[in-house]
UniProtKB/TrEMBL annotation:
Magnesium listed as a keyword: no
Limits of the CSD domain: 80-154
Keyword Transmembrane helix: no
Entry GO CC: cytoplasm; nucleus
Region annotation (Disordered) ranges: 34-53
Gene source species: Alexandrium catenella
Molecular functions per Gene Ontology: mRNA binding
Name of the protein in its database record: CSD domain-containing protein
Length: 268
């Protein structure tokens, strides 16, 4: 599926928008360095166009170097391991886990993508220093072998749920559980955002723009990658950022049911 969607919904670091993977602030594929200035050393590939790893890659920001894995590295993909979340970038949808057992992979560090997290949250995520359990996923990407974390859960196999805590820090218009109606003009998974036109006649306690931006983190597709959508009736909450911008919160289909996901081939 196309991971070109999870980014900084303000526009910087968006997967496939400004700051896209292969543009500003993104991965130029695994084969280069993660950077924010549009000087991607790994080429122009993106999650939307497939992963690539041609050489050791870096995470900008002090995370250290994680080398591409030797082609002959043997891993037991059925075994469960323990580890600690070293870092996780919610808006980008990825992070790094430090293995509790040393010597399993070079560097004792694994990449983790949001799609490999067991979670009931509408937007699966991890928290720094969280203890987690996982298996190893060995994959060949464009001729280079990579190993990442898969089936990530809490110790004991319990799903990870952190969204309630994150939602508790938001400032809502009317309250967290107040719902509004409107039409989704479009949503682009590769860009990681869309826009909603609110219905006429809504009563709001603040002056809110008629059109609201919705980011992939707030598109409720039941924890799956949302499909591309256009002109779809939706309901949602509204939250206000620290900079005073209004955005849609927990966008669903009318009645609170999940929106179409890519694996449903939903392209409304």
């Amino acid at each position: 599926s196309d991971w070109g969607g999870k980014g900084d919904w303000g526009g910087k670091g968006a997967w496939g928008a400004k700051g896209a993977l292969g543009a500003l602030g993104g991965w130029g594929g695994w084969g280069g360095s993660w950077s924010k200035g549009g000087k991607d050393k790994g080429g122009k590939s993106s999650w939307g166009g497939g992963w690539s790893v041609q050489k050791p890659w870096l995470k900008k920001g002090g995370g250290g170097t994680i080398p591409a894995m030797p082609a002959n590295l043997q891993v037991d993909e059925g075994k469960r391991y323990m580890g600690t979340v070293q870092s996780y970038y919610k808006l980008q949808g990825y992070g790094f886990i430090t293995l509790g057992t040393t010597g399993v992979v070079p560097g004792d560090k694994l990449f983790v993508h949001w799609s490999n997290i067991q979670s009931g949250d509408r937007f699966p995520s991890l928290v720094k220093d969280m203890e987690v359990e996982f298996c190893l996923k060995k994959e060949e990407k464009r001729g280079t072998m990579t190993v990442g974390a898969g089936d990530v859960s809490l110790p004991g196999g319990m799903p990870i749920t952190v969204q309630d805590e994150s939602d508790g820090k938001k400032t809502f218009v009317g309250g967290q559980h107040v719902r509004y109606s409107g039409s989704l003009k479009f949503f682009l998974p590769k860009r990681g955002y869309g826009y909603i036109t609110m219905d006429d006649g809504l009563t709001l306690e603040e002056e809110v723009p008629k059109e609201l931006r919705v980011e992939l983190a707030e598109v409720n597709a039941g924890g799956k990658q949302p499909a591309a959508m256009k002109e779809v009736k939706v309901e949602f909450g509204i939250w206000k950022t620290q900079k005073g911008f209004f955005k849609a919160y927990n966008m669903t289909a009318p009645g609170g049911t999940p929106l179409p996901s890519e694996d449903q081939n939903g392209t409304a």
